[in-house]
Amino acid sequence: MEVFMDDFSVFRNSFQTCLSHLERMWKRCEDTNLCLNWKKSHFMVKEGIVLDHKISKNGIEVDKAKVDVIAKLPHPTTVKVQS
């Protein structure tokens, strides 16, 4: 399991081990009265966006949608000189 601020990912090489870790994580949430947003939860996905990176069986990639937004920004037309 990896945790970053209010996001976490549970992953393992086997389905059974993944379920075991997921059960432990839910138990921790229950023990600490942490409420999960089920609308934002994803289970059993082959790929997903985590911390603005696409995670899949191919590894970690930059989210192309984010790159496209930056690529479409207008080029600067002025230069500010700092002294």
Q: What's a concise summary of this model?
A:
This is Reverse transcriptase domain-containing protein. Helices cover 30% and strands 20% of the residues.
**Sheet with the most strands: spatial strand order:** 3-4-5
Helical element count?
2
The value of Rg in angstroms is 19 Å
Number of strands: 5
Q: What share of the residues does DSSP label as strand, in percent?
A: 15-25%
Q: Give the helices and strands as they follow along the chain.
A: EEHEEEH
Alpha-beta content class: alpha+beta
Helical content class = 25-40%
Roughly what is the average pLDDT, rounded to an integer? 84
The tally of domains stands at: 1
Low-confidence stretches: none
Shape: elongated
Biggest beta-sheet profile: 3 strands, antiparallel
Q: Please report the distance between the alpha carbons of the first and last residues.
A: 49 Å
InterPro entries: DNA/RNA_pol_sf (IPR043502), Rev_trsase/Diguanyl_cyclase (IPR043128), Viral_Replic_Matur_Polypro (IPR051320)
Protein name: Reverse transcriptase domain-containing protein
Organism: Tanacetum cinerariifolium
GO molecular function, one term: RNA-directed DNA polymerase activity
